[in-house]
């Protein structure tokens, strides 16, 4: 059994090359395709077993998510707690088909990375589809780990991004992000302009609207219960296609964008039609039926019959996350750790 701490996972992921990141992107795309294909099979024929996650809400407003999955050769269970105040805490445990414990990994780093990578599976396809854009500006709402990994992976995998603006509630977290994340990125991506915008700034509304109107890529990474911006602000003065990723809300009472924004997209790309239909507050409030939801796995599967529309003014991807994503990334990390001798091994557990 191998134990990987948050620092060990973070160090491994921060040192990924573009080629390494692309391999993980392809692995996750393949897992999402397999998940979608399995939905059309009977329960007896399915090799992937993934019940909807269990959500435990305490009186102290701490939310614990229990997410099990098996691909018939490996089983994983993620237990992650989202405190009322503070970052995600938890672990991913990996088991062999016979029940032997193979690994225990910090859940916070894996969750942030795999969710951002899920966004990248769609963003990279979208960027390839629309093409012909000389410069792309990216706006990210939120300044936690999820937002950080959206920025890092977008810069690693999408060449055309030349400006990144991160929007957050308060200045303090943005100062930390500026120092710890943007500092090194400014060296490795000297052609990219980085900026921060706090919601408590006096000129916030004006600057936010200005950033949104110029952005071609918008990623929302907050557990907000109110829309972060209006559809009018999003689409104002913008004629080029744009991509919107929504990964922050994971309960029916959460909502990162308004109903008009969702409806502008027509159909909505999702990681899981069933889970998003049950848990995504934006889709529930907009009364979007499952017939208007298209799983990203449909795009990634062999002989795909669905396509991204290069002429669409707005492409929306909604992701609530599922355990097969954790299993895919956790297995890859365990393989890397074994090859490099990382982590702590415990025999005869």
TrEMBL record:
One Pfam family this sequence matches: OCD_Mu_crystall
Gene source species: Extremus antarcticus
Protein name as catalogued: Ornithine cyclodeaminase
Coiled-coil region(s): none
SUPFAM superfamilies, sorted: NAD(P)-binding Rossmann-fold domains
A single Gene Ontology CC term: cytoplasm
Domain of life according to the entry: Eukaryota
InterPro entries to which the protein is assigned, alphabetical: NAD(P)-bd_dom_sf, ODC_Mu_crystall, ODC_N
